[in-house]
Design brief:
Helix content: 25-40%
Strand order of the largest sheet: 1-6-5-2-4-3
Order of helices and strands: EHEHHEEHEHHE
Radius of gyration: 15 Å
Number of helices: 6
CATH architecture: 3-Layer(aba) Sandwich
Number of domains: 1
Shape: globular
CATH class: Alpha Beta
CATH topology: Leucine Aminopeptidase, subunit E, domain 1
Number of strands: 6
Distance between the termini: 8 Å
């Protein structure tokens, strides 16, 4: 991506959110018995704690996207899901992107590819926003940023126009550099 600026940030993604960026929350497609989205750990837990009703609203979206006949909240595979899977919580400036089917399962690269494609479309259609993109699938999802996810993100960024790419900030919460090169 020679000559093209990819913005990175190492630190608390909530700082970027407080500065006006939309925060990407990597989630799962599991529902509680009451129909709320399971958001019990990692960044999703912090999102639910800051915005208490977001799990109920997101659960309703998940329910709409699961083909009738499947066990709600526990799709066996991708065949029973309709798209888009991305949910933009407008008031909260949160983009909920499933990277797992079930909350305790590992993140899936196919879901991350879908999440990135939908994020790209959303950012392209929202010309005034910036998004803070953490290392999706790498925390509780169990994937390795350098080996598994960074190559997908790098290819995704390369396919974007510079104006869109310039509004995406890759965030690392730990000491792992937030590089994509």
């Amino acid at each position: 991506m020679s000559g093209e600026r990819v913005r990175t940030y190492t630190g608390d993604a909530w700082y970027l959110h407080a500065s006006g960026a939309w925060l990407v929350d990597p989630t799962n497609l599991t529902l509680t018995k009451k129909g709320a989205a399971v958001m019990g750990g990692g960044l999703s837990r912090a999102v639910r704690e800051r915005f208490p009703e977001i799990d109920v609203r997101y659960g309703a979206i998940i329910s709409e996207r699961i083909v009738p006949g499947l066990t709600v909240g526990y799709p066996a595979d991708m065949t029973g899901l309709t798209r888009p899977l991305l949910f933009a919580a407008q008031e909260e400036r949160i983009l909920l992107c499933p990277v797992k089917l079930d909350w305790h399962a590992p993140a899936r690269l196919d879901l991350i590819e879908i999440a990135l494609a939908e994020l790209g479309d959303w950012v392209a259609a929202s010309p005034t926003v910036e998004i803070a993109l953490p290392h999706i699938g790498c925390g509780l999802g169990g994937l390795d940023w350098a080996v598994d996810v960074r190559p997908l993100v790098r290819d995704w960024l390369r396919a974007m126009t510079p104006d869109i790419r310039g509004r995406i900030i890759i965030v690392s919460a730990d000491k792992t550099p937030a590089t994509v090169a």
